[in-house]
Amino acid sequence: MATEHQGLEIDRVTGWRMAPRYALLVVVSVIVLFPVYTTVIASLKPGDKVLDNPLVPDSFTLDVLRNAWERGNLDRYLLNSAVVALVVTFMQVVTAVLSAYAFSFLRFPGRNVIFFAFLATLLIPIEATMVVNLQTIDSLGWKNSYQGLAVPFLATAFGTFLMRQVFLQLPRDMRDAATIDGVGHLGFLRHVAIPLVRPTIGAMALFAFLSTWNMYLWPVLVADEEEWRTVQSGLKQLAAAGIDEPNLIQAGTVIAAIPVAAVLLIFQRQLVRGLTAGAVKG
Amino acid sequence: MVVAFAAVVAAACSSGDPILDAGIDPTTPSPPQTAAPGETLPPTIPATTTTTPFADLPECPVDALGDGDDPVEITYWHGLGGESEEALKDLVAGYHDSQDRVRVRLQNQGGYNETIDKYLQSGADGRPELVLMPEYMLAQMVDSESVVPADVCVNESDFDMSAFLPRVRSAYVTGGVLWGMPFNVSGPVLYFNKKMFREAGLDPNKPPETLEEIRRYSQRLVDSGASGTGIALDSGQDNGGGWFLEQWFAKGKKLYADNANGRSAPATQVLYDDQFGVDLLSQVRKLVDDGLAAHVGANPSGYDSFLKLADPKRPAAMTIGTSAALGTLITTLDGGLVPGITSEQFGVGPMPGPATQPGVLLGGASLYVVADKADEQTAAAWDFVEYAVSAEVQSTWASRTGYVPVRSDAIDLEPLRSTYDDDPRFKVAYDQLNASTEDPSAFGPVIGPLREIRATNSNAVGAILNGGDPAAELKKAASQANRLIRNYNTLNN
Amino acid sequence: MRDAGWQWRDLPTGLVMIAPSALVLGAFLVYPLVKTVSLGRQRCNESATRCVTTGWDQYSDVWRSEEFQQALWVTGKFTLLVVPIGLALGIALAMLADRYLRGIGIFRAIFSSTVATSVAVASLMWFFLLQPDVGVIPNIGWVEDLFGVVKEPGLLRDPGTALTSVAMSSVWAGLGFTFILVTAGLQGIPADLHEAAAIDGAGGFRRFWSVTLPMLGPTLLFVVVVLTSRAFQAYGEIDLLTDGGPDPQQSTTTVTYLVYGDSSVVRSDAGLQATTAVWLFVILLVLAALQLRGFGRRVHYGD
User: Fold this and answer.
1) Considering only residues 142 to 161 of chain C, which have any Cβ-Cβ distance to chain B shorter than 8 Å?
2) ipTM
3) Any chain C CB within 8 A of the CB of A19?
4) What pLDDT digit, counting tens, does each position of C140-169 carry?
5) Measured in Å, how far apart are chain A's first and last C-alpha atoms?
């Protein structure tokens, strides 16, 4: 054990020595997945079987999922969620990279004060702003539109903070060398800085996507027309629709979670690979 | 660190004053009372006295709906779920088939609470042309000055309301004016498991009618092992924590608020923290203490008390719920959700409670035509209202959902006539509603912040059923309610 | 911080680059906050069409009120459950999976999976896990025999267990986030530090305390700040699981729920709501300042 290297070399020790750790990993995985497991099982059982043996998948049907899909109008909601989440993600990356660059590579007076102000907005609870924001959006005529759903979230202090952290880890001389070579700020960003911090941008984009996808209070407020609802507010709707089939709600839950789970699964590999590639060695 | 911080702050700063007094000097007298408080007032039935001249009210241009080529589109907000929502969708489809001048866009807001919040927070442009608001919103809808009173439209269009149940119409009248058009009327009823009754040697045709009988029946059910517990009770604001309390006061022939339940003049205080209320809730709590009732909490899903009937391990044999749940209950049980229980097994009886006065207060909701819309939209909204409360439509609606029809001629029409004949469970709520008397206490409270008062009571009932002291909790709730009323009257009158 | 002095010629470029972010943050976070602060001196009717200005006293009155103090106490307990447990479990999972074993990717995917669940999704899952009548756990025979409370009255309905149960669903939902961040942090630790410590004869635990934890400092600081502010802003899980109850004492009504909750006494008054929301903001600010100071001394920033 004393020779193990964390995060660098592949541990080639195989066989029985690793069995306890595998066992532990499996046990912990089962615990973590338990709520997901029971929900999926319930969504795949016919309504009249859902109360007996909730832990055992002893009967199978796709009817409940199909029913939830139809009753919940989920296709339109999924489209809305996807558009909003993608736009917000892209714009958050752009705004964060730009401002983080200014906060790390530029040395203009007032920088630290403005950065502190940015950080302070991290603490403003989004719920505290919603009533006033709704008035703003309303006065712009943006209720029930993609603008209304997306614009308030096109920049976050979180993204700026995260990008600044990684920019600060880039060696200072890189920028100096670029300046000597006559490379401008945007050129340096595009050809040097961004490629170096790509893993962090990936991680940040992932979080931006997830948190936008998962928002539900704002979409409920700003989109009160059926065709502008997102998956989360649609789910709330489905849950309110009643108990005549409790697993209908669970089926809706599964459908609402699948796209994100898929994105995460695809992205997870790249994320881990990117992170393990060691990023920048100073 | 967090807790230490909070504890220090709490110890140093707590005043123990209610948050509703914040910014207000509690010693300021409340606004002048328009009437002397309490039961001394003559028992006026305001439905018969017109006090608001129509000239002061928004207009209802019922003829503005031409037979233009483009249908007028209107939006209708509601909060119904389950079988009721399905029935409403079919109702609108039927309306579309019957004419081509108006198109109704149904928008489910996810519940009454959500509908109310969104309506009140929306500006005039954001509001729909039609909104379905529960009965406890009457005072607030009037004070919001955002609706065309149904009476104005009735007058303009010579709409015949003679067949309407008097009880149903009067519920939505203040100052002599009918504000919302009653659409889905419900009442609380007792749901009980006949099979368990039989197993316990109880007569399934004689459900318990008083709280004493509930106790006796429950004891029998539990002792015989027929059910795990007697009755499932919740403390939710639209059920056991709010609505039922109002019902029990009516059944006990007691006023819930002063000024004849707020119907002769705006209410200035609630009256439910008296000995009657304390005795009532002590009796209910004792059922829970003795294991004869199960308290299922604040019932956020609206179905928690019903789920207790389906509990595979320790089911209850009875619960009290809205008659509007009957349609959903039948579809659910026939869908086979609960193994071994069919919908036929469930009986429906009148709401049990103090037996001083027969009948119940009405629940459900009414349709409000929203003001400040284009003339043709207002006319379109009214056109739909007339359709929705016609005898034929109400007959179909009531037989499918368990709601009570708003008019008596609906029960002579198919399909409701057969439903009432074949399945008397549907008729319990109808009969019970029509049994009501003319005493002021038999007309439900009209209080501006009634929704918030119910939420407060829900907390109090929840605390009592979890072991709290009935007198202390009711007193606290009542003083909270009086603050809500005072603040409301200050800001709205 | 970086060396060297300020450079005026960077100013225009800097401002232009900051502008898009500043515009959005200003218009949709700062401006509403300022407006809310001013609204907090008023009492309003339910549609906020009529408000009367009562003055700044409303802030101290709200702070000292029984309901606010109770909510503050509940929030403190909730945070103290969610943050340390969430952090400890996140670190534990990350350490467990920080090995290059065959198939480790699958386990990492599983451990991160809860980021894919929104509050609504996670809460509905837990609701059907804990619901005493039709839920999964209460109907497992031996669980019910051992812990009667899961059935009567139910974990979410017993005033003694409700807050903890909501906190557990919250911890579960936040686990993926913590796991991913700590994992990233672990992989940023230079291997030579571990080697050096190992050569010095430090065992696994010693190395965890003297190398891993300090080097994780910035990550952990960030995670703690985010988890704390999330705990203070928790709304969806309380709304869907307990509605702020059960009584007595509204045992799961946190400050955020007091502001927006369905059963809250202030919800129908935009003025009182604003006052309470501003206090929520102030508390978060103070907490963040305390955390930055407390951690600042112990954290190794590696720069």
Assistant:
1) 144, 151-154, 156-157, 159
2) 0.82
3) no
4) 878 878 887 887 788 888 888 999 999 999
5) 28
